[in-house]
Amino acid sequence: MSMNLTSAFDPTAVWSSFQRLAVAKDIASVSAIVKEFAGSRGFNNSGFALKPIGNHISANFVSFLDFPAEWAKRYQGLSSKRRNSADPVIQHVTRSQIPTAWDRRGKVTFTAPTIAGSARGLLGSAGEHGLHAGLTMPLLAQGVAWSYLVLTTRATSNANDLLAELPCSHLLAQGVIVAMLRIVGGPDDNRPTLTPGEREVLHWSAVGKTSWETSVILGISEHTVNFRLQSVCRKLGVRGRTAAVSRALVLGLIAP
């Protein structure tokens, strides 16, 4: 049986989740928000892991998950440096910021062939525990060695079936990392200051306008729009307008 997917990329599907993430007070609250979002998109389970660099964050390792008990045990060793070097998931998230889809047959999208090859055994084992396919979203942040959010399904989908879900799920993941860093005492506690012009271009990016469309709406050049977006990305420590929008939403710098 295949997964019952929502088909189109709809940013409004995550706005309510962003609003809740912005005021979440603890890890359990963030986990509940992710679980609800995952269920609304047809996923059955979810997990998050974060390994900080040095003492940038108050905890040595942060995670939440609702996987079957036997599979959840593998997360217990992820804070070990030796375990990290051999884990294909960690290999992917430390080498690439590209979200990926995968399935129990060993298909992995958007990753190096060597990593995909080493992941086959892991993915087969995941399938035996009911994690038949899923998405893994690497997360980048200051003071973080690696982090990722994973959503999985018990349906017998293949990796390509899940590609339509990557945009919305990756957008949510950006909000999750910001909320988690705020809760565990990460460097995102201090919000940067955006200029009125930067807020304007972020607002129109948030509702799906291109740089050209935004330039027409605001009566400025497309170059100026892109310049402001680049400035926002530098201030927020992210790459790309999607990540900038999601982080600004969670930090309350723009309204959903």
List keywords for this structure.
256 residues; alpha+beta; Beta-Lactamase; Arc Repressor Mutant, subunit A; 2 domains; five-stranded antiparallel sheet; 11 helices; 48% helix; 12% strand; globular
Structure, described:
With 256 residues, the protein is an alpha+beta fold. The protein folds into two domains: 12-188, 2-Layer Sandwich (Beta-Lactamase); 191-250, Winged helix-like DNA-binding domain superfamily/Winged helix DNA-binding domain (Arc Repressor Mutant, subunit A). Helices cover 48% and strands 12% of the residues. It has eleven helices and five strands; from the N terminus they run ααββαααβαββααααα. It has a five-stranded antiparallel β-sheet, with helices on both faces. Helix 2 packs antiparallel against helix 7 and helix 10 packs across helix 11 (241-250). The protein is globular and about 55 Å long. The model has no long low-confidence stretch (mean pLDDT 86).
